[in-house]
Design goal:
Layout lengths: L7 E7 L3 E9 L5 E10 L14 H20 L4 E6 L1 H5 L3 H12 L4 E2 L2 H13 L8 E7 L4 E7 L2 E8 L3 H8 L7 H14 L11 E5 L1 H11 L6 H4 L3 E3 H12 L3 H4 L13 H14 L4 E5 L3 H10 L2
Parallel strand pairs: 1-4, 4-5, 6-9, 9-11
Antiparallel strand pairs: 1-2, 2-3, 6-7, 7-8, 10-11
Helix pairs in contact: 1-3, 4-12, 5-11, 6-11, 7-11, 9-11
């Protein structure tokens, strides 16, 4: 290896709905340059059901995706790969078996992290993209199986927790991949609100930052991005009117019709309505009319913490 060449490191974030893959090149002075940053929708939580079992077909999709990421990492000559698993693997009854199967077939050992660690690392990733900021801050990351909340002041973290509020569960429970009536939508919003009771009664934060595939896809739809551009997505401000506009857009179409929406990533069409409803509910409960979108997330926090020195 050329010692003068900057070293590359990779992070794999195995979520309930998608696998995120990031390669960062560490620059002299410690800054990071993004080499690869992409996500593949694998629906690991599909058909989770009451038994919370990751089905064989879902494990197969995850293995295929991760193997492709490992191959890509090798092509870039990465020094090391860090792999973390979140809610899907955390709460699955066969999570340990799935992790073992993935390791046996790809050589990647996924570390299943706690909801608190997930929130802390996501906060670290989001905070690094905000620049100079003073005041109270709430960062939330809603995924396929859970939502992480981190409450802080300036760069200090005061409270972190994870709740099992994710897009896959409500999609399956209320059939939100279909055209739904306003009545069903109202029922879904009520269920989400009940499950998010832990954030009730909190002071309105100076800034609300959202991250994860749901909100970055909504931002891409807002900007009508034919090709995803993280530079445009990062720092976008979404207001409640735009969230409501998109909820109506998804509610009035089934998953097949949603595929034609410019900006919506393939395979997101089934869970995007549930995700948008979660985002809307968080804004309402925290008393914010707007949120700031972070294209950064858990993977950036893992990169900084594991390979930043």
């Amino acid at each position: 290896m050329n010692e003068n060449k900057p070293h590359c490191f990779a992070v794999i974030d195995a979520g309930t709905n998608s696998i995120k893959f990031h390669i960062g090149e560490r620059q002299p002075g410690g800054a990071w340059r993004t080499v690869v940053d992409r996500a593949e929708v694998t629906r690991m939580g599909e058909g989770f059901g009451q038994d919370r079992v990751i089905i064989a077909a879902a494990i197969e999709r995850v293995v295929t995706a991760i193997q492709g990421m490992v191959d890509e990492a090798r092509q870039h000559g990465v020094v090391a790969i860090a792999a973390v698993g979140t809610a899907g693997l955390r709460i699955a009854s066969n999570g340990a078996d799935a992790v073992a199967a993935i390791a046996a077939r790809t050589g990647v050992q996924i570390e299943v992290i706690s909801g608190e660690d997930e929130g802390r690392l996501a906060y670290l990733g989001a905070r690094s993209g905000l620049g100079a900021f003073a005041g109270s801050l709430v960062v939330f990351d809603t995924g396929g199986g859970s939502s992480q909340f981190t409450f802080g002041q300036d760069s200090r973290v005061d409270e972190r927790f994870s709740v099992e509020v994710g897009a896959v569960k409500y999609t399956e429970r209320f059939k939100l991949d279909q055209v739904v009536s306003t009545g069903v939508l109202r029922e879904a919003l009520q269920a989400i609100a009940a499950d998010l009771s832990r954030i009730d009664g909190r002071p309105v934060p100076d800034q609300l930052v959202a991250m994860g595939g749901v909100v970055t896809n909504m931002t891409a739809v807002r900007h009508r991005l034919v090709k995803y551009d993280p530079a445009i997505v990062q720092g976008t401000v979404l207001d409640r009117a735009e969230i409501d506009r998109q909820i109506e857009l998804y509610r009035s179409q089934d998953a097949a019709a949603r595929r034609t929406i410019v900006g919506l990533q393939p395979k997101r069409e089934e869970v995007i309505l549930a995700g948008a409803c979660i985002v809307r509910t968080v804004m309402e409960k925290l008393g914010r009319q707007t949120l700031t979108v972070s294209d950064r997330g858990l993977r950036h926090g893992v990169l900084a913490e594991r390979f930043g020195t």
